[in-house]
Amino acid sequence: MLTAITGINWGDEGKGRMVDLLSRDYDVVVRYQGGNNAGHTVVNERGKFILNLLPSGILRDEVVNVMGNGMVIDLEHLHGEMGRLREGGIEITPKHLKISDKAVICMPYHKQQDCLEEDRLGDAKYGSTRRGIAPVYGDKYMKKAIRMGDLLEMDKLKERLRGIVEWKSLTFTGVYGADPINYEEMVAWLERYGEEFRPYICDTSLFLDEAEKAGKKILFEAQLGALRDIDFGIYPYTSSSSTIGAYAPIGSGIPNHKLDLSIGVMKAYSTCVGEGPFTCELFGEEAENLRKAGGEYGAATGRPRRVGPFDVPASRYGVRMQGADEIALTKMDVLSGFETLPVCVAYEVDGVRTTNFPTGAALDRAKPVIEYVPGWNCDITGCRSWDELPKAAQDYILYLEKAVNCPIKYVSVGAEREQYLVR
Ligand code: GDP
Ligand code: MG
Fold it and tell me: Which of 106, 190, 217, 236 could form a disulfide with 1 if both were Cys (CB 3.0 to 4.6 A apart)?
């Protein structure tokens, strides 16, 4: 049984929260793309945890977690993240965590390159998290990357690293006027973290293939959302990886298996971190009220998130790209107390109304068509069944379900593990 949990929107939909909940029925949780450029916040009986690189299943002792070949891994960050979790009482051993030998290492110079480029761009910046993600994926496709498996053969790696450092230093000095990269420092960095992570590195493709064949249940956890996908998102304001469910078997090392279930996590309103077109964006006091109600500040960066009403064209597109079979609607409780709720029901592009999501330059010209629906005034964080929801909340959910044409199965009414209901 292979299930993917993905983001329908721009990210931060609450995927970590849903993985934490649903992983109780799974044996293995896999992250298949991205690096530490985003964060999943999970609140459960063990505490509050922020996960950037580790799969959210790490919070359950009995679950095996895999960091797949599609990921990029900053070893220093992983070291820190594991340390913080262990302080919080989470046990992490090679029994709990397996790292793909084909996952790519995000080196200190990738972070530096990310910063140099964002600074060079000035006002035209991409809004990168400056964690080195675009440069390291770039190097992967240039075939100049270092993979986790290379740490198992340090002598060979040191030899290859010499050429890579020489090549990258040309960019640093020639393009940015920065200092060349210090080879010895990079060797020391790799040796230090290589020592720590060597026991976790293995052929996770083989592990997952055998697990699947033995009838184990595997859950794929996506980072970011459909609108940040490198191919189908709001390019170039996307992430540098494939955030869609169809990529999960590939980024995990088992392209010979197909997804059985795709669960799209969709937020009851919209948020977007960083630059790029965000058609439904709210400003001023209206935005501030929603941002405060939802606590919309980035888990990885602390940046205030841009906010807007639920966006029908964007979410319909997200549902299609994710191939979602069912939806987990999150943060419904945040909308309590607003007398009326705006919904972006369509876009107007060059005078034509559409519910299809435009891509490319047409998206920059899109204007939101807003309609208002009734809100509800009571606290819904204690609701555990459909019948307990106020009529206006039920109507809002039914409205969204129809608008995106996908059944909403789970409704989350709070950040804590048990604050949800199933329809
Ligand atoms: P992810 O990147 O998709 O995993 O989402 P984030 O963790 O970055 O952002 C979601 C935030 O909303 C986190 O702080 C969660 O704890 C919180 N959250 C998730 N679901 C709910 C919900 O239903 N209600 C409320 N109030 N908070 C939620
Ligand atoms: Mg997030």
Answer: 217
> Each residue of 74-86: pLDDT tens digit?
999 999 999 999 9
- Span 28-60, pLDDT tens digits: 999 999 999 988 999 999 999 999 999 999 999
The catalytic site residues sit at 12, 40
Q: For ligand 1, what atom is nearest to the CA of residue 294?
A: 26
Q: What residue type is 216 in one-letter code? A: K
**One CATH from 3.60.15.10, 3.30.559.10, 2.30.30.220, 1.10.300.10 for 104-197:** 1.10.300.10
**This prediction's pTM:** 0.96
Burial of 114 (0-12, 13-18, 19+ CB in 10 A): buried
| Assigned CATH topology for domain 267-422 | Adenylosuccinate Synthetase; Chain A, domain 3 (3.90.170)
Mutate to test the pocket of ligand 1, among 267, 330, 384, 422 (most ligand atoms within 8 A of CB): 330
Helix axes 391-404, 312-322, angle to 10 degrees: 60
Domain 2-100+202-263 sits in CATH at 3.40.440.10
End-to-end Cα separation, the chain, in angstroms? 22
